[in-house]
């Protein structure tokens, strides 16, 4: 049987994809939480935010009902502060190091408070920043994702005219096309991009792809500098027999469709296997379930100790009713009439630790098979190696190599997933800021980011 | 079980918690509910000349998300007809004979008006009077309330008139709107008042509305100074109470303590500093009468733990520990110690000491947690760090005396000892 779409009623879709981190519904509730914050000095939460948002300050501003000031504090460090408040894995970032954890109490809900202030700013379209007078310099940015737009915002504030080239028809990058639908809505992503570009001085040219519609050589001639924020895009292949059968899809594409079409257009199997246990795998599994699959099984080669996703994410999948098969490696996809009917896996056991310190899985030789009608591959992403090679950019397996955001090509800078191989939105935002700072100093303009407070190094640069 | 019953001037009540003269005590309905809830006594809302009230009448100070830390009113004395109040007082006394019933009074400034009011009220069977020399608004323009309390000689005169006539005990309630409550207190004790009560409300402006730009409370685009009370005034009330409890003239009479009493703990503090009982207004207005249940149980449990059989066993016990600055022991010294196992690395002690004290805490940078250590030789022992630390018993003050023997400032000077050595 082929995989189906339109499995649920409109109400069921709405319910399944509603916000998993709902905002405060009352001012009082936000104030109670904001007032719990101790206003720590040299706050650990701030040091654990890759963009170094001054968390105690923005929370203090909520307590005094200075919401405009609060939003300014957030956006000054992170122009994606609205989106980050919905998508950041806070349990391993800011909230994870809130001092309340050390008192064995719930940490301050930093992200929720961040959302409280930024939602208002975006909704009311507050103009919180002003561009400096034009410097006459022009910079091209490739990719309208978090890295590209954060870089664009800093540069435009400093009086630089920025043109962003984006291959898709919408901005936001994986924020718009990748992140689970129950975290951000397409409308929010659009509002966020509009909010960022409302500063002025940022032109986005959609449906313009580097390597197809334009070349790096042209951009270098036409602009004073170039920033590459192209992300990582291609899903890694499993390279096992049967991968070409109908019903085998890659997670990025599955989620891309989910985010760019309406839910009832998305085909999903009844019994689904998801391969991998990173954030993408979790997102694919939970959303397959929420689209109406009756059984979803996550297949992972190692054990819980080695899993790349966080406990919070794993719990999310478990709460959605997904099964997990630990120590199982996919070996072959079995088909009937050209369509997937089963996944054969090899049982594994843990061997000696590898270079990353994780114990590698070793084949035990025993097999089992799962009856499935859909397989979603989420075994990691591959950088745009061809594009990068074609531009003579120095790279390591397609990941662009940079030194202080500087590539090997003069005047060309890069940051975000295309450099780090895929981290979080908040890391990409910081990489955009760092890239902008590098460009400003390359153009002999002011550097924007003060990196030391009281002689202490603060900014944590993504690498 | 301890005995928490009280005897104030022969007026008995099952516990030392009275409701102060204010809206909670201004009619039979409220007072019966209060007695049913367990209050030991009430001071009926002040009786006197006929008045008219405005709206709004109240405003509050909120702090860090906590409401009504301070409360402010521009209300006058009872605005109900006198004969109805008198009838209801008599009915309440009959229904609850074991509770204290005190009538608060404020008459025009003539002997005749006071004598007439006293005669009328004594007929109700009330157990005592409280003279309102404190109301800070409305009545002062007519020479009453705080206008009396602020002038010891006028206060003395009024009390003399009252004592000529009254046959039941008289408590004189003092205004805090003076630089010291002692002169008026002495004057009225010399005029033979049987007891003192304090404080009434403190003149204040609680704040300005940032939209209308008119201060609170708002009355048709205008405001006036109001009387401040509630938890925020407790420290001021305790100080004033202590000066009355220490003074050799005023400490001859019992004192009823008022001003920000909200819990049994507050009540015990007032009593340790010399009050024989306490009166409560704002806390009851904020939470209702049922707070008295915990007040009674809490007091009882504390007395059991401390081994006090009756409240007289601890009333006034802390008064003698408040001395003069020059009698303090200069050789006493302590320094802060941070318990590293309890420290949550919030840095609040560090920044308080660094910015506003003596730069005596050392920071070792860490990611994400810094480490904080006290530089013992620099610490002056001000204990600011301990006050701002959010973790109980994380910062303790360790005694490091500068000398074994007691040494005060006078002696220190006499010996010509060097300044600034510690
Ligand atoms: C399934 C999934 C779920 C995720 N969930 C989360 C999450 O919950 N929280 C979180 O913080 N992070 C999450 N991430 C990671 C996060 O989305 C990325 O780290 C972040 O978006 C990286 O930003 P970027 O700007 O570097 O790249 P991208 O967001 O990928 O943006 C790159 C942009 O460049 C454009 N582009 C690419 N090639 C070209 C070209 N040749 N010419 C022109 N334009 C081009 C792309 O269309 C895109 O708009 C998730 C990632 C995935 C894949
Ligand atoms: C609304 C209001 C009305 C009051 N009216 C009187 C009054 O009529 N007579 C009086 O002696 N005190 C009056 N007071 C003062 C209280 O009796 C009491 O002295 C003061 O509020 C301090 O106590 P608290 O902090 O427990 O409220 C009034 C207080 C309030 C809040
Ligand atoms: S951006 Fe993310 S990590 Fe930083 S403070 Fe906000 S929610 Fe936390
Ligand atoms: S660590 Fe927690 S309490 Fe301290 S400033 Fe950050 S959010 Fe507030
Ligand atoms: S007691 Fe005072 S001087 Fe000593 S460490 Fe604490 S704040 Fe600093």
Automatic annotation (TrEMBL), chain A:
Name the UniProt record assigns to this protein: NAD(P)-dependent oxidoreductase
Residue ranges constituting the 4Fe-4S ferredoxin-type domain according to the UniProt record: 28-61
InterPro entries (UniProt xref): 4Fe4S_Fe-S-bd, DPD_II, FAD/NAD-bd_sf, FAD/NAD-binding_dom, Helical_ferredxn
Positions in coiled-coil regions: none
GO terms, molecular function: iron-sulfur cluster binding; oxidoreductase activity
Species in which this protein is naturally found: Flavisolibacter ginsenosidimutans
Automatic annotation (TrEMBL), chain B:
Superkingdom per UniProt: Bacteria
GO molecular function terms listed in the Swiss-Prot or TrEMBL record: dihydropyrimidine dehydrogenase (NAD+) activity; iron-sulfur cluster binding; metal ion binding
GO cellular component: a single term: cytoplasm
Ranges of residues in domain 4Fe-4S ferredoxin-type: 334-363, 370-400
The keyword Disulfide bond is assigned to this record: no
EC code(s) of this entry: 1.3.1.1
InterPro entries, alphabetized: 4Fe4S_Fe-S-bd, 4Fe4S_Fe_S_CS, Aldolase_TIM, Dihydroorotate_DH_cat
Catalysed transformations (reactions): 5,6-dihydrouracil + NAD(+) = uracil + NADH + H(+); 5,6-dihydrothymine + NAD(+) = thymine + NADH + H(+)
Gene3D superfamilies: 3.30.70.20, Aldolase class I
Keyword terms: Iron, Iron-sulfur, Metal-binding, Oxidoreductase
Assembly with partners or alone: Heterotetramer of 2 PreA and 2 PreT subunits.
Task of the protein: Involved in pyrimidine base degradation. Catalyzes physiologically the reduction of uracil to 5,6-dihydrouracil (DHU) by using NADH as a specific cosubstrate. It also catalyzes the reverse reaction and the reduction of thymine to 5,6-dihydrothymine (DHT).
UniProt xrefs under NCBIfam families: PRK08318.1 (NF006183)
PANTHER family registered for this protein in UniProt: DIHYDROPYRIMIDINE DEHYDROGENASE [NADP(+)]
Family statement drawn from the similarity comment of this UniProt entry: Belongs to the dihydropyrimidine dehydrogenase family.
Protein name per Swiss-Prot or TrEMBL: dihydrouracil dehydrogenase (NAD(+))
Organism field: Flavisolibacter ginsenosidimutans
